[in-house]
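Data deposition worksheet. Section B asks for the primary sequence of the deposited chain exactly as it was used as input, without tags or linkers unless they were present during the calculation. Section C holds the resulting structure in token form. Section D is free text for depositor observations; keep each observation to a single sentence. Incomplete worksheets are returned to the depositor.
Section A, Depositor: J.P.
Section B:
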Amino acid sequence: MKTRFFLHASTILILLGTMIVLMNIETHAQDVRKPTKIATEETGNFQLKYGMGMSTRYLWRGLDLAQSPALEPYGRALIYGLELSIYGVYGIYENAAKHPDFEIPENPENFSAVFLDRIAFTEVISNIFYHINTNLGTFRLGVTEYYFPDRLVKEIEVDSFGIEHISYPKSTWLNWKDNGEGAHVIEASIKFIGKKGFPFWGIAALNVYNDPDNSLYLEAGYNFNVLSNNLGIVAGGAVGGSKWYQFTVKNGKVRDGSGLTNFGITFSREIYLESWLILDFGLSDIINFYQERNTILFKATLKIE
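Section C:
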């Protein structure tokens, strides 16, 4: 408990320190602020962008995954419409059990205490996107790979007698098995980003590898300018039963259908400290109707562009 208290206190002190430094910068908001690019992708032969974010929670498509403050480093390279990007998510303190089934086996004698060890959430996301500019807006086609370094994966082997043997090896990067037994999940997606006059966007994402449910996620949103802030409204959710989106089992009952897991608003503002250095603040209020959960999070991101 003491360790968790000090981690919370450290996170708050870091955020307060950042705010104090910003308050001491002798500039006016109208001088350092630039309009946030809502509906366009930057163009150029080559661009390299990277930075670090810190959030009070790691919320992904309405799912509270880290369940703790998290550090989020990232990097992006844009080359003639082709985007290569990597994202990392590192929970600050331990919060979740290793056991991938999230339940204790019926026979306690077959249960290892290692499954109950708690770990900090970690995730590595790799993307390959291609941007196509049209008169309506930009279409982004791509593939995303999700890897969870510190989780155990479930492996099932059937012996010559037809008996299943379940094991839980570590989630090594070289484990590229399919059918939910591997360490990687691959997603194919298409995203539309409207132009400035119509700042609508939408995304469809389908798990195509290592997800027995082949989970489908749909999301749409619209952006506004409100008192020099960006206001984004989003609604998204899984379609059909999906363990990936935690939408198959609830209160011990198997469910199917569609679930609105990511509904809410986000306020954000960018401050240009230098032409190449940006500080981005965001406040989100997200409701997950399937889990009947409301989460408010604050995120600060230092961008180098």
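Section D:
Residues 2-304 form a domain with the Porin fold (CATH 2.40.160.40).
Confidence is low (pLDDT under 50) at residues 1-9, 18-43.
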